[in-house]
Amino acid sequence: MPIRTGKGTISLPEGVYINSSAGVAGSKEKEGPLGKEFDIAFNNDKLGMDTWEKAESELQKAAVTAMLEKARLTAADIDVIFAGDLLNQCMSSTYGLRDFQIPLMCQFGACSTMAQTLAAAAVFVASGAAERAAAVTSSHFCTAERQFRMPIDYGGQRSPTAQWTVTGAGAALISRMPSPVRIESLTIGRINDLKVKDATNMGAAMAPAAADTLLRFLADTDTVPKSYDLILTGDLGKVGSDLFRELMLRHGADVSQVHNDCGLMIFDLEGQDVHSGGSGCGCSASVFCSHIMRRIEKGELKSVLFIATGALMSPTASQQGESIPSIAHLLHLSA
Amino acid sequence: MPIRTGKGTISLPEGVYINSSAGVAGSKEKEGPLGKEFDIAFNNDKLGMDTWEKAESELQKAAVTAMLEKARLTAADIDVIFAGDLLNQCMSSTYGLRDFQIPLMCQFGACSTMAQTLAAAAVFVASGAAERAAAVTSSHFCTAERQFRMPIDYGGQRSPTAQWTVTGAGAALISRMPSPVRIESLTIGRINDLKVKDATNMGAAMAPAAADTLLRFLADTDTVPKSYDLILTGDLGKVGSDLFRELMLRHGADVSQVHNDCGLMIFDLEGQDVHSGGSGCGCSASVFCSHIMRRIEKGELKSVLFIATGALMSPTASQQGESIPSIAHLLHLSA
After folding, report:
1. What does pTM read for this prediction?
2. Which of A71, A327, B30, B190 satisfies CB 3.0 to 4.6 Å to A189 for a cystine?
3. Burial B166-193 (b: 16+ CB within 10 A, else e)
4. What is the DSSP pairing of strand B164-165 with strand B278-279?
5. For testing the chain B interface, which of A105, A314, A324 should be mutated: the one with the most B CBs within 10 Å?
6. Which top CATH class is B181-334?
7. Is it true that domain B17-175 has CATH number 3.40.47.40?
8. CATH superfamily of A3-175
9. CB-CB under 8 Å, A129 with B4
């Protein structure tokens, strides 16, 4: 049974594991530093579909299919799937997962969704409500840009703080069956809003949420950053990562030796013209479900904090003068 | 600990209860048959705000505040809140709940969201991951119409199958502390898509999902419709309710004596010019969290199935020629 402690960290003493995972990505990600790590990397970001949105649905379908194949399971073996994406009405998830016929609970946490879906799946499995639960999220550069900012055809100049939405998806399978990757505990995030209003500076909006969740977790577990091999944020990018490290330092916790960010890892910031780095829920999903999972499985990483951050921004709210609330959910994984 | 059975029904043998709830609604709902049942009914649907979206956020805030007051608790007493709405990026939830600082997991299930948030909260509480969890959803006629169909200023003629999105919200508090309303079990829905493409006929799109979930539940529990005092669907409206009853009959289950629908209850279909009835996640949320909860608390209803249905439609998907996938989640409540 899960146990709640202190400021809300939920520990899973009886053992909940990630049994299989798959990360898929698009062509630009394939050319990046982690290009060879993805289970599937597509050369054409339309994936043979006639719209970008349908292509993003295919990313989720591909990630779930690959994850199931690696686990030698079929969709009928999954009791519930937690899914989400950045698009309006979670359409990549609903259309991408429609044919699997798995009981579905769509989650919205913007770019924090991979951690949110994993957290929900872990609690359902720990409680016995599900024997096997899955988590999947995606994003696509072309769908996100036209929904949140400008259609890419417009060719607008990108600001230096802007991040590049990753075309990718990640899926993971959670059960009580022991595997090399265990979910030790998790912390559900709460909204932080430091009144950032710039929709091209997500990192700044999200950094306080990452710090808030990590500080709550460290207090609950009575640990320090160097207790972990890696503290991995989702997609703070360069601007957000700098702010996050500074915020943590101000609270007396130096994360600089153990911190990395999926948005900094997935692209070559100098060579790939992505300004502040990668973003989107497909960023942390594809990096975590391939590269990071593999490193934990191999024992290269023994204790990892995965903190996916989300800017809960809405174009409608931005047009109405609102700031961007942010959130971050944390999972502690061990080898 | 929750126990899974058969086709996925999750029973909660150790007792999970709804300790407090509040339903709030707008002016048209106040004039309807349940007008006196709501905890708060606003005379002005803008709630003093300068935009409809901000007004909808206020509905969620009002519902949560009223629910907390009735339970004599503060926001700090709630371990996690599951929230959702129909708007893009769940903005009514994120902005409406921002100030409470409760750990938040946004859910998206379109009009099924009240059942989805209750289900997630029930499993978190049953597992021990949360001592007290809350569930809240909302909808608003003016925000939904302009997002999904036409701005109301346009004055377009409504089709006979169209439903009227309810301006309202509902919030509920779930814990292990015994109360008159117990959550016995729940069934998570899966996507049904019978290829309905008409965005003004949600009832037809959602009826198969309601039937699918109910049939799974009846099989798992070896019960029949008349085992229950009330089988309450969310917002199938008149067209969808007729289809739902017919679909159930075809599967040998006659629900006609025990079925009602929040979308049929909240408005006077003849007198209030709402065509096929009410809809929106605020419809089942406001009706369930006020009128229905009160009837169970009083013992007038002893065994209720609450099946909220959601049309997972996206204007973008509709523009791309897609059909409307639907889903329905079920909770079994007892006095």
Report:
1. 0.98
2. A327
3. bbbbbbbbbbbeeeebbbbbbbbbbbbb
4. parallel
5. A105
6. alpha beta
7. yes
8. Stage V sporulation protein AD (3.40.47.40)
9. yes
